[in-house]
Specification:
Number of strands: 0
Shape: elongated
Structural class: mainly alpha
CATH superfamily: Phosphate transport system protein phou homolog 2, domain 2
Helix content: over 70%
CATH class: Mainly Alpha
Number of helices: 5
Oligomer: single chain
CATH topology: Methane Monooxygenase Hydroxylase, Chain G, domain 1
CATH architecture: Up-down Bundle
Order of helices and strands: HHHHH
Number of domains: 1
Radius of gyration: 19 Å
Strand content: under 5%
Largest sheet: none
Distance between the termini: 27 Å
């Protein structure tokens, strides 16, 4: 009976689930960022393609889930994965915060009546927006590679 209980909370279940959920959170952040920038900078409409507040609620829920899974894993399995677990908890807090920032961009888009133009800074701002979008993909890959390394 105890072995079944221990298997339920094994590395393959909780810690890997936490890594997968973190990647999902990063994907949500990317979707929210791209939609917010599209509405704010490339559209005269303030309609988002989805409810950004619902995505933000999901991010908040996922953050709590990741933290709970990591801490439960560490409590049951032991301190062997403590660095990875605590690093993931720290990362997931930042990932959730990015969602808050993208929600702020969406709020600005909703409150701004027309497409926001950056004047002489337009090119630089567009480059920054593109780099941020690219970094979401890179960040998700780093989290996935970290999860794979833990399996070894």
């Amino acid at each position: 009976m105890f072995q079944k209980y221990l298997a339920l909370f094994s590395k393959q279940n909780l810690l890997e689930k936490a890594f997968r959920r973190t990647v999902k959170m990063i994907e949500f952040d990317r979707e929210m960022f791209e939609a917010s920038v599209q509405v704010l900078r490339h559209s005269d409409e303030s309609d988002m393609p989805f409810d950004i507040y619902e995505k933000d609620k999901a991010l908040n829920k996922y953050e709590r889930e990741v933290r709970r899974n990591v801490l439960t894993h560490l409590a049951v399995v032991g301190k062997g994965d403590i660095v990875a677990g605590l690093t993931l908890v720290s990362i997931v807090i930042d990932v959730e915060r990015i969602g808050d920032y993208t929600k702020n961009i969406a709020d600005l888009a909703r409150d701004h009546p027309k497409r926001l133009e950056a004047g002489r800074h337009e090119k630089a701002l567009a480059e920054i927006e593109n780099k941020i979008t690219e970094r979401f993909t890179g960040f998700a890959k780093i989290v996935l590679v970290s999860a794979l390394l833990l399996k070894k």
